[in-house]
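I am hoping you can look over what I have pasted underneath with an eye to the fold:
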Amino acid sequence: MRKEELVEERYGLALARIREIPDESICGGTYRDYFKWMAEFVLLMDQALALVESGRLFQLTMEELKEQNQLLYADILPERYGESYANPDYAVDRLGESIGQMLSFLYAELRSMIPSAFERNRAAMTIRMELLLEAYQFFVCAAQERRKPDAEELRQILYWYVSDYYEAEFEEKTEVLLNADRDFARRIIMESDLSDLRYLYYFGEYITENELGTAAHLSSLSDVEIKKMADTFTEGYRIGFEVTGKDISIKETVAIRYFLGFERVIRQAVHNFDQIGLQSAFYRAGANIFQGRNVHKNGYFGANPNRQYDYDHKEDWALFLDGALAGRRVEAVRNVFERYRELAALYGGPAVVESFGEEPFVPVTKSTACRFSEKQQKLSVENTGQISAVQNEYIRGEEHSFTIIAFPVPQIGARYSEIFDDVVRINTLDYMLYRDIQQKIIDELDKGSTVIVKGRGDNCTDMKVQLHRLEDPLTQTNFENCVADVNIPVGEVFTSPRLTGTEGILHVTRVFLSGLEYRDLRMTFEDGFVTDYSCKNFPDEEECRRYIRDNVLFHHERLPLGEFAIGTNTTAYKIARKYGIEDKLPILIAEKTGPHFALGDTCYSHEEEVRSFNPDGREIVARENEVSALRDTDVSKAYFQCHTDITIPYDELGEISVLTASGEKRVIIQNGQFVLPGCEELNVALRE
């Protein structure tokens, strides 16, 4: 029997059994209500699959598509989430602490059948249907034997589901990333009538006025304007290879990540990449335990129906993570990459279009949600590092590149069209002008050994950042002159500082990192490492620390300072103030509106041996620090698999100066203004 036939048979058998569940009362009580709800959801998924396979989906009117889309996601929307089994608070209240957590996870896993139905992936749907049936039979047996369900037995069912299917699911994810022949999204993008906005509903993502409004706005633009945006995006990708001395001709694929509604620009970008010699691959943002659920989306995605839902389930791995499963994950990743070795070698890296403008999100930390134990936190950090090390054997950092650009969505406000036009202007600023001004800043910084950064007003920042010693200042530099290539828009100079001697307090009154808000964030550094941290998001101090450790330190006990930079894009700062959207800027733009400090890996992670040069010909020698230098002796201690930028806005900035070896202070910024000769042009926007 062929694989497809076997899947078809398993799907049919599972579906037939699930159809019977709503009419059965063996479990009784709240368990009966839960499994009835789950069965009805699976039947809804089967209806969605039938709609796609029959072609009837493409005949529905806009109103019918909207209604169907709402039906798929209704249960986790904020107004319904309080009484959803996907909400761990509700599940625990109804089903008990341990079993409630696990059954809430099970429902979250079933919900990942939505994209599978639209992709006609019966195999992915089948394994989740079979998981539901196995869990249901466990409760049926307990009821028949007149005993309470044992939580550990249920955990074992979930554990072996994750263990047994991890390799197959990772292979699915890897193939979509590396193989441009997996063309589900590309066919919609390249073959749809993009003036007929019904196409947005064919992806299977949640669709709101943001996606519809973005697509409608792009439809109103001329071909010339669309091409200008796409050219900036794809040319940045190409230049990223050029400036780092990497050979783009040996690559054949690029993975495009973007937000729905932007298809008109993406279609042009695909044509541009074709001309470069790269095929475009598209992979969907994670929706299940294998791909990871998080507030920050990585892939192509529609609207987030409920960021609290993603936040509640971001550590569901805590239900099963142990040493054996961690080892299984590493083994599976290596097996998959061995099978895809050739495609991995041809992968050029991601090209990313980010969105911004949604309402800021402040999560509620729930005691009912899964959370790693201290032991699991350490194991998770170690396991992530091992998996990353394996991946870097096959997708080598010194051979691939990337580019990132960002655009607003309509939710940013009534002046969306104006803001959009101004963001396009930010993204296409004269990089030659910035290159020359930034070189003056670099020349001044290279005269010193220590950079001083101080806040003003309510900002208590007081940092000393140590620079590497230049053996030959005529041919070497500490700072990269960042123009509009991999990191669009233009506007920063950055370095990987020495850790020893880097110390002080980093403070921001309000900042958004990966979609999460931090109020009065304060971090203390000693010898380049964070030694203490706090914020004022929650009344309880320990809850604040846990929030930072989970979402900024990513479960590491401490992190080094991987980057120090000075943002120079005062135009972006002015535009943010003009529209009052400072709290909505993505870090990609926000990091250019003041100095920023990045926790975690350096900007040259896994590329330390690649020689990099500024436009003036000087080699950037600050490509590593004392931690990344450990890669030759113990690679597990060299990298952290994270890099989080924290920016101090100009209006909170008192001083940036550099101290020479002789102790002379040379000031670059004073009270939020550039005072270094040759940088006067940057102050025009600040004064406006």
Q: What stands out?
A: Residues 151-178 form the longest helix (28 residues). The chain has three domains: 3-149, 184-357+371-394, 429-687. Residues 115 and 434 are 43 Å apart (CA to CA). The first strand starts at residue 253 and ends at 257.
